[in-house]
Design a protein that fits this description.
Elements lengths: L1 H16 L13 E4 H5 L10 E5 L4 E9 L7 E7 L12 E3 L2 E4 L5 E8 L8 E10 L4 E2 L5 E7 L7
Parallel strand pairs: 1-9, 2-10
Antiparallel strand pairs: 1-3, 3-7, 4-6, 4-8, 5-7, 8-10
Protein name: DUF4843 domain-containing protein
Pfam families: DUF4843
InterPro entries: CalX-like_sf (IPR038081), DUF4843 (IPR032299)
Amino acid sequence: MKKLVSIFSLLLVVLLGSCIEQEYAIWRGSEVEFQYAVVNAPASGVTYPRMAVSNTVGTVSLQVNLVAEQRTNDETITYTVVSEGTTAVAGTHYNASGSFVIPANSSFGELQVEILDTGAGTEVVDLLLELEGNATIEASENYKRVQIRISQPAPPAE
């Protein structure tokens, strides 16, 4: 009798357990985020990561992720230089266009900043970038900022 009750109980659990409907939340938003901000911890005392580069590096490319369905058309995404957190001077330390493109049928774009060679010295300047998005794509609140710290090589010893 115990064996029959055990088998009946097991059969009941299997039949009733398989009929449970699951409701999974699906996020339908569209955001852009800096990959560098996703994989690196914020710098001390701020809410964004800091990337150190030399002023001889040339162009810095930052991958920007599209967190949404891929688009069938190119998406132009804007960004800005944030004055608080920036000591670098446009045209002297860097050149930045203020926008870049995420190509059609892609989940990634490349934001490029030209770092200008100001020669040897000991100056260190910072450039804080913030994604803005566009009319249909927002910037991720947690991963929309990255700071680039530009340093100059030490002058040659005399």
